[in-house]
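pls design
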């Protein structure tokens, strides 16, 4: 399963890209609003840091606006994936942009019906928000299972990009279900590395080596 980082923070992106575990980046207007760099400059630098899909989101909510912004965003870099909301206008724009050879990530997906429409419209990625479903007492991972089954039933090419990831278990369950990718904020990526037994084992190894008074 591919791992994407969900941020517009250049330092965080570089950190995890250098570790060799990042396959792409997802961003949105809220994430860019937190950064001091301009959108255009930030987007260009992100695309240089990661050799993989970089989702850049439109702010328009109407069909014509989405098409205009989507074409502009696609020109930033060859790896840009235009991020659109899963609305009627977004579905229509997905079909149009995909017809022009522009990859689309349909976001804010909360049902398998929406995911089906996204695939039929030709979306390259669909982003189901599992954490936000958990917040309202629904099991977000059940949605991932349903989408995986539907896509496999009909051999849809759309990739399942699990979003709104709240903890490492979401990542592991996504991999077990067979999601194509998961996008995580930096704090979740950091947690994937950690286990108390790893720290304990390393500490014991070093203490034993120190007691032995040997050298490499």
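designed seq:
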């Amino acid at each position: 399963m591919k791992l994407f980082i969900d941020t517009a923070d250049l330092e965080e992106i570089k950190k995890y890209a250098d570790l060799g575990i990042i396959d792409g980046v997802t961003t949105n207007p809220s994430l860019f609003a937190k950064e001091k760099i301009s959108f255009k400059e930030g987007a260009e630098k992100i695309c240089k840091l990661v050799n993989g899909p970089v989702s850049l989101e439109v702010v328009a909510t109407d069909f014509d606006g989405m098409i205009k912004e989507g074409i502009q965003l696609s020109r930033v870099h060859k790896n840009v994936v235009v991020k659109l909301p899963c609305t009627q206008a977004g579905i229509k724009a997905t079909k149009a942009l995909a017809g022009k050879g522009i990859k689309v990530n349909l976001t804010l997906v909360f049902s398998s019906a929406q995911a089906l429409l996204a695939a039929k419209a030709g979306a390259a990625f669909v982003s189901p928000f599992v954490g936000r479903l958990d917040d309202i007492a629904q099991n977000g991972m059940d949605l991932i299972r349903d989408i995986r089954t539907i896509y496999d039933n009909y051999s849809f090419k759309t990739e399942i990009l699990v979003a709104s990831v709240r903890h490492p278990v979401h990542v592991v369950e996504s991999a077990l279900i067979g999601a194509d990718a998961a996008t995580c904020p930096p704090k979740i990526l950091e947690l994937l590395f950690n286990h108390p037994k790893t720290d304990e084992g390393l500490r014991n190894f070093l203490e034993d080596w120190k007691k032995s008074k040997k050298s490499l």
